[in-house]
Every structure is written in C-alpha cells, then in structure tokens.
Amino acid sequence: MGEHLLMDERPSLERPVLVAAFRGWNDGAQGASLAVGYLAQAWAAERFAAIDPEEFYDFQVARPHVALEDGVTRRIDWPENAFFHAAVPGGGRDVVLLLGVEPNNRWRTFAAQIVDLAQELGVELVVTLGALLADVPHTRPAPVTGSATDPALVEELGLAASRYEGPTGIVGVLHDACRVAGVPSASLWAAVPHYASLAASPKAALALCRRFADLVSADVELHELEQAAETYERQVSEAVAENEETQAYVEGLERRRDALGDELDLPSGDTLAAELTRFLREHERRREEGEEA
C-alpha cells in the first residue's frame, strides 16, 4: 500500500473499475470533475481513503482554504484527492471513484499511490476522464473520444489507439504508471467550447457519464444532469447572441460539426502546449494576486 495513502477502511469489492478525474489542466470547463462528482452522488458512493496532500502540492499555488463551522470554529481545507466506492447498478460490479486535484510536485510518486491502491483492491480497469478546449459549438452534444495504449483493450472496449504527442498532465502520467504496472487503463475525453471555457459544462459531464456507463455496462440516472445541460446551453446561447461576430463564429462551428458527424477534430500538440502555457500563466497571476492581498 502506498505510503501516502490515508485509509479509513478497506472495502470488499466485486470486479472493481476505478474512474478518476482531476481538477486542473485536464479538466476544461470542469467537465471531468463534474462527471465523477455526479456519478458519486448518483450511486451514493462512500468515501474510504484519500492521498495525503503534504508531499504533492505547492500551497502557494494550490492554497488551502479556511472555513467556519457553526460560525465559530475555523477549519483548514487542504487540496484533496479522495476515493469513494459504490455498487454499479446493472453492472454486476463495483466502482472506485477518485476525485482530486492535479498535484504540483512528485507526479510519479503520486501516480504510484493510485496504482498501488488499484492493485490492492483488485481493480480490473482504470478509466480517467478529461475535458479539453476545442473548436466545438455549445449547441451540440459534447463529443467524446476514448483511447487506450493496449491493443487488446482497444479492441475489447471499442476505443482507439492513442496517437497523441505533446504536453501531458497527471492523467498521462497515471496511464504510464498503469502501463508499467500491468494495470489495464483507458481514457475518455470530452471536448468543450473554448469560447465558453469559464463556464462549468454539465453538457461535457453528461457526455462523459454516458460514455463511461456504456463502457462498464452500468445504469445511471442522468435526468438532473440533462436538465443542467439544457440550462447551460440556453445561458451560453443568450450570451453569444449579444455579439454578432461571436454569433457568426458559433454558427460556423455548428456547420462544421454537423459536417464532421461523430468525428472529432482534436487540437494539435502545439495547440495544447499553448493552452498549457495559458493555464500556467493564469495560475501565476492568481498566485501573485494572492500574495499581494
């Protein structure tokens, strides 16, 4: 068991699958973390473990938060990576859900903690969820791509072989750790509109939940998420309609999306590198503002 794991209990699980999402660069418009959070709520998942954040975060970047309890007691909330478990309705198996924050330091050690726990629990498959910014319209279902590095797993799950080259986040490091340890793993990515990146996207979360449920033959009630996706689309449409140039741009994306069908025009490695640079600059700006406050 990983030395940085904090275990409350060791659950007894049947043919478990681990699904993980990390807030940060891998989580455009919070699509992936919203999806795992929704699954945890829908399946009444119970928390059983966490990763000690002490070794993995620069707390001047990922600052802990002070909270009040009963208006008096002050509590420190640290960056959290928590594990939950639940039975999968209709799937004949259990699921382990990991909802966390991309770490700042020691990524290989961090990934090893997850892989160690997965092996300890007998996890049969690790699935990561991610969301990326792309040239897609908010008025269409969020496209989802799935990939794996193992050829047999690609064929079994109906995914694609990963051909991406470029910058990566903790998701890529985790998949490499799974490969080295011999733990089967797959990755699902939803595309979110880059022009609406500041708004949390329940539409991306909905698409990821549906694809994951299909992947593991599970039942999940999605009505609440579907309603949130409809509200999101209406609100973004109202904002877009206020600018004729933006409106025309979105209409162009709609025509291209309809022409492509199910094919997703993924951003290049250079585009993702530029997005990573923007993401890091934004974090640096927030850090400087926090130090000045």
Describe the fold and architecture.
The protein has helices at 31-42, 107-121, 151-157, 170-181, 202-215, 223-240, 244-260, 269-292, and strands at 5-7, 17-23, 46-51, 65-69, 73-77, 82-88, 93-101, 125-134, 144-148, 160-161, 185-193. Residues 265-273 have low confidence and may be disordered. Helix content is 41%, strand content 23%. It has a nine-stranded mixed beta sheet, sandwiched between helices. The protein has a two-stranded antiparallel ribbon with strand order 4-5. Helix 5 (202-215) packs antiparallel against helix 6 (223-240). The chain has 293 residues and is an alpha/beta fold.
Mean pLDDT: 85
Strand order in space, largest sheet:
1-3-6-7-2-8-11-9-10
Order of helices and strands: EEHEEEEEHEEHEHEHHHH
Give a count of the beta strands, DSSP E runs of length 2 or more: 11
Query: What fraction of residues sit in β-strands?
Result: 15-25%
Helix content: 40-55%
> CATH superfamily, please?
PAC-like subunit
Largest sheet descriptor: 9 strands, mixed
Number of domains: 1
> Which regions have little confidence, pLDDT < 50, spanning 5+ residues?
265-273
Estimate the global geometry from the Cα principal axes: globular
Radius of gyration: 19 Å
Please count the helical segments: 8
Provide the CATH top-level class. Answer: Alpha Beta
What's the CATH architecture name?
A: 3-Layer(aba) Sandwich
Structural class: alpha/beta
